[in-house]
Design the sequence.
């Protein structure tokens, strides 16, 4: 690739395309000719998409997926490497971090679909989402140790959180690849489907989430994250106050009415 670290040519450098589908923001990684390797421009697009999801009130759920045979082979290192070597962040600090490693943090759920090669930053990006559907042809690899570096997008934490110490080090320290069945066993993905079905199945889950009361969905997500970050006491301390707030919402009233009237609830996020 001839693009320099300071220029961005959408015709060769790819993009991440964000498109509304009802209440869902579809975020499509689009550089299949290069196995969806992330350029600086694509990283900017990705942060912009997550920021849009967070800021637009009528978007309730995100869907992250990729064109082509592979989710992503990782970073375009000849372009992104010099940027990182200078100590520059992959995502601008005023934008939402798709890796959920620093504020401002997103508050809305994201469902992710993966297929084919899911290496390095792609695996870390996948683990930063809330629900993952994997095709049965996936090749996962956190291979940084084979390049003399270490993962810096959350793998060292999320591997341990999901899979336990020994299972995490088995792959973090060797750089060995693993398949979809192993990813399911480790808790890295929630469903495995035939290749070609992953995006449709992920959208089905995203749409199912979008049918629920968005304030309740975000509150549930926030309390789960508080537990993961601070433990059960901190999470439990927030339960009563959050439930009182939700109970006073229009959506809670709609939930009760729909139950009494035996109909599907229509939530508005108020």
Sequence:
């Amino acid at each position: 690739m001839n693009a320099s670290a300071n220029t961005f040519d959408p015709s060769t450098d790819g993009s991440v395309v964000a498109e509304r589908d009802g209440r869902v923001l579809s975020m499509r990684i689009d550089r299949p000719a290069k196995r969806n390797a992330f350029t600086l421009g694509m990283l900017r697009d990705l942060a912009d998409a997550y920021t849009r999801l967070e800021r637009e009130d009528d978007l309730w759920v995100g869907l992250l997926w990729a064109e082509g045979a592979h989710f992503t082979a990782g970073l375009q290192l000849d372009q992104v490497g010099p940027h990182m070597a200078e100590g520059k962040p992959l995502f601008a600090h005023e934008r939402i971090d798709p890796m959920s490693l620093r504020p401002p943090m997103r508050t809305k759920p994201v469902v992710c679909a993966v297929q084919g090669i899911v290496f390095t930053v792609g695996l870390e990006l996948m683990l930063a989402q809330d629900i993952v559907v994997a095709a049965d042809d996936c090749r996962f690899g956190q291979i940084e140790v084979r390049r003399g570096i270490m993962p810096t997008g959350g793998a060292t934490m999320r591997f341990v959180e999901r899979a336990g110490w020994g299972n995490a080090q088995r792959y973090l320290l060797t750089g060995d690849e693993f398949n979809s069945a192993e990813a399911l066993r480790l808790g890295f993905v929630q469903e495995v489907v035939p290749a070609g079905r992953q995006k449709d199945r992920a959208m089905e889950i995203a749409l199912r989430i979008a049918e629920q009361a968005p304030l309740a969905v975000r509150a549930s997500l926030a309390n789960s994250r508080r537990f993961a970050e601070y433990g059960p006491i901190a999470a439990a301390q927030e339960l009563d106050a959050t439930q009182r707030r939700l109970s006073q919402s229009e959506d809670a009233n709609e939930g009760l009415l729909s139950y009494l009237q035996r109909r599907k609830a229509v939530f508005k996020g108020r």
Q: What stands out?
A: The chain has two domains: 10-210, 214-260. The mean pLDDT is 91. The longest helix spans residues 214-230. The CA atoms of residues 167 and 186 lie 7 Å apart.
